[in-house]
## 1
Amino acid sequence: MINKLVANIQKTNAPIVVGLDPMMKFIPKHITDKAFAEKGETLEGAAEAIWQYNKGIVDAVYDLIPAVKPQIAMYEQFGIPGMVAFKKTVDYCKEKGLVVIGDIKRGDIGSTSAAYAVGHLGKVQVGSKSYYGFDEDFATVNPYLGSDGVNPFIDVCKEEKKGIFVLVKTSNPSSGEFQDKVTDGRPLYEIVGEQVNKWAESCMGDSYSYVGAVVGATYPEMGKVLRDIMPKSYILVPGYGAQGGKGKDLVHFFNKDGLGAIVNSSRGIIAAYQADAYKERFAPENYADASRQAVIDMQMDIAQALGN
């Protein structure tokens, strides 16, 4: 799947992943009104609104981007109906030819980690048959429990030709409380990056590994160091836009071939119609058109920063 991700990025010339992280406050009233009229102000009504909102955005941007990243917590909060909306979103995006990165941040040990890996990336055995569960193409993985938590995902990746992005240096302000702690004279995130590189070398696609890393756009200097430590890992870069990251912050996340990184924007795209830069041009009914314009603007910002 890393080969497809690279091919999609080259085809669109847009190293961009849209974070499908729906919140009820982002969803225009005309969508929630219709969903609630059909299913009531219920979990089912909320899930229907989420699904229709996502579908509108995907329809508007799928030809511009290589991938999407639904954040599972935004769906889990609505219980089983929310998880149905998550699965419908994953399937629809794949029908549109997009690579789907399941932002699940799982990390456990032994059979539990294996179950997470099977549920999101692989097949579960049911009697004499096997079935895909959520069937994303990539998943985000928390390495805090060590190799015991990551190896089951790598095993499934090898079997299914899918991939993972391991949390190395995250974009949130308090990430340094643990990730920056110095151990043996080096920050912990560098040590994690070296381990990611070892995992990556054991699981290669044509030019990049099925094992990637998450490194926040809000820490560009650290990104430069980690790019050198993990030369064959694709870097998923959150923190662009709403969290403060700019195109100029992204240069060092990419390799000399112009590849090696994919930049996430979530609410900066999916809720663009509410932002000052777009709300005068786009009414709530045209929220998806605002999302499309936000993708185009982001693509231009990154291209300028990279000198393309």
## 2
Amino acid sequence: MAAKALLDPFGITILEAASRVAAHEQQRLASVKIEAALEAFKQAKEDKSDKHRQAINQMATHLLKKFRGVEIADIKGIDVGKWMDEKISGPTSFNGRLRLMKNFWRWCAHPARGWCKPEILDVIERKDENPEEIGVLTAKQAEQLLRAAEKHIPDCVIPTCIALYTGMRQAELQRLEPSHITKEGISVPANNDRKNKRRRFIKMPPPLARWLKAYPIKKHICPPNYNRKELALKRLAGFRVWSDYVKKFGMEETPDEKSTEWPQNALRHTAASMAVALKKPLTDLLFEHGHTGGEETLKAHYLGLMPPSVAKAIWALAPDKKS
């Protein structure tokens, strides 16, 4: 009678409630812990591009920090949504991660596996984003980033400078080897990503040459643990980015809400805006940056976005360390 009284306001019978509980328990019996599900998902996606596999690895790392040891059938969408709000800044990054996580949950829910329900993340709403808005760094922010690298994470100085002065994509940057860089420039290896299938050559920017002289390349372009270090570097430079690596420097993982949000693709957009402001020929910029659109698209995105004075200030940044 007590059970009936509890269920009556919701129009649910005791039999319906029992059926739901039985279905959930049956789901739990078929389920696996999230670490096993993530490992199986990564193996199933081994044929994907470097960029896609990197995104999966980042998703897995973050999910395990929160839900390690939990059966995937027991994870609630509302808990995932709250965790994403805390850890992921920027609507574009949020929506990209949500899209990948929904793919992961649907894969886990496929009848061949049946580890969870496919709709579990439907309670999480996409963030509003303005695809026309392009964020770039100011001269002060660019300097803060490079000084933070010099002071705290020196093995990130060169990959940061390459991204800042060439606009190279992160996936391309992480494929670079020392042999790809000469005094003349950088040979960017081809990849199977649809945006950058062609091999291309980027002439050596003078500011990058200055930094390379002060920080000669050794075994790697990007250091081991680069993804975690890169997030920490943004945080150390004052941006609102979640990072567990900053605990090494006595900082909390969760950033101050009042800090500045890191613009999406900030280094790539800054590099392109800087090149346009300094009147680099658009044909050279299109090829060296690997842009897929034409000159008109490039002008629409970057023309007038950065004043020449700011571009010159970033171009003039030099290392504190002497070679």
## 3
Amino acid sequence: MNHFLAISDYSSEEIQSFLDLAVDLKKEYFERGNQPLLTGKVLAMIFQKPSLRTRVSFDMAMRHVGGDALYLSPNEIGLGKREAIGDISRVMSGYVQIMMARVFDHQHVVELAQYASVPVINGLSEYNHPCQGMADALTIQEKFGKAKGLNVAFVGDGNNVAVSLMIVCAKLGWNFTIASPEGYELSPEAFAAARDISEETGVRLAFLRDPHEAVHAADVIYTDTWTSMGQEEETARREKVFPPYQVNAGLVSEANKDVIVMHCLPAHRNHELTDEVADGPHSVIFSQAHNRLHAQKAILVRLLGAG
């Protein structure tokens, strides 16, 4: 059974094949409209954490390829609370052809996949965000092609988005640098996974404190919210720590002249990212958000054997 739980589960060639399919599906949609690739297939969308982009992009992805989607809210399913995850997984496997889960605890989506007899997609966990990573890679390739050796800089919290970005960079041959304040670094588990991949692909990984050093010669600057969902009690402390990591016009000017600025959204404007940059000529944050739809179509189609 093929699942999509982490980008690291796939080879570089497989990741590129997903992206190539996403390009084809995106082109077909704009030229010919929806395609009946998954007619009769239903995606169950299981949410512990709410999300605008994840819900709408997966729902519309299934519509684009002729399928349907079923939304299950946190209160409806109580994943890991009202009922054992293994039982939920085996029941749902008899109702739908594929599942997506957006969870707090990464182990919950792993366990869902363990007992499922249909493919399971990780829509986000506290460890990683592989669907976002695929959309990010698609966006970068749309700008720069499949060139190796790009310099990608992440500025801010070493969170789940940073993990998947680092892994996809290592897979596709892009150098990855992250600048984070002390105590907010990437996890040792994520570092170990990326290090092993980078040794095969020859990319450079750098872990810094100084955001100015990180963006030097950067082709991509990426940032994310300083306080993620579930960390609200840390907001006051984080807002004291992270201001030096704001992506503003001054920081962007220190990168390459054709640099693109990325953010997975939702953005807290004029905190981690200024309005001037978010709405400026280097920003690709909205095309990046739209690419969630097309990258996820490729994942759905490939996992269900239709492409």
## 4
Amino acid sequence: MKKSIILIIMDGLGDRPSEKFRGRTPLEASYTPNMNRMARNGISGLMYSVDQGMVCGSDTSHLSILGYDPRKVYTGRGPFEAMGLGMEVKPGDIAFRANYGTRKDHKVIDRRAGRIEDSTEELSNALSMEIEDVKITVKSGVEHRAALVMHGPGLSEKITDSDPHQAGEEIRRVEPLEKEADKTARILNEYLERSRKILDGAPLNKKRVNEGKLPANELLLRGAGQAPVIPSFEEKYGMKGAYIIGIPMIKGLAEMIDLKRIEVPEITGGKNTNYTGKLRAARENSSKFDFILMNIKAPDATAHDRSPEEKKWVMERIDEAMGNLLGIEDDALVILTGDHSTSSTTGEHTGDPVPLILYTSGIRKIPSERFSEGACARTGFTIKSGDLMNYALQITDRLEKYGA
């Protein structure tokens, strides 16, 4: 029986040196004995997201890691976000990522409405409507996040975002990038005008203002796209796959390639997720599936908040939970890596490579003294994310021979 593959992607894993840790990264400053043990007993190195120096989003990097070339299949992040929230995205529909943000004088004051913790479901229900022959549906996600789907004839994803992507900037008017997108842009601009009036009068926002909190009075749209037509994971690799994921966007990607959901309580897609439950579930289900994909969002979230101390805390919580996978090396290949690097100094993604471990028995080891950016770099082993699945397949004796 071939070994199963457990792929653990720590979102935003890599980082840059921080003054908080005397020139070390949060990962280098972390106490991670379990992952260090894996690094000493596996193949350790660095992985580039899509290509060397490329600054990638989680969507394109996850596609590449799973062996789907984003240059050929990526149409925008919106469909993944929507499908991850359980929304139906049909052929011809346009889907968007969305944030509930705070607007004042047509400028964005906060893109996350103070990282709103209240449920925004009543806002999303109020913002679902029809304009002309287009049905617009909104669904809330975790905290400030949401997704929007447009369903109707003659729609195009070739439009600009309304989200300026930075606080203090003017909210952007949606513009068509080609003639065929005129209708989509026109309807969206009308929709956003209507939505502002609804949000300004919403009871939830009046309550938040009375409590001294920022109102969620602007729906910021970005990442328009149509669902790509791609083969399922089983069609592509002949493996039965599953996922353990809390964040809607990556969950949507997993659903799109027909991975099966493994239910784990209290996985939030945030820093207070059930780390132990995730890793324990991976071990318990490794004999039921050929492949398990896990995403842990917390390192990226803390880096975006520019908190290297919290990112260090998160890495230590992950390492504690990683003890659940020690001793599984005779039955499974465990891959530890990130989808991209996120600087906890700037709060932005970077093109720096991420640490990588392939941990199993019976392999030619390329050991590292610990799991960190610097230590993994010193092994000299580097790959691109698009080659990772080939490495996993050949280690587990699943890769077909190339040539005679």
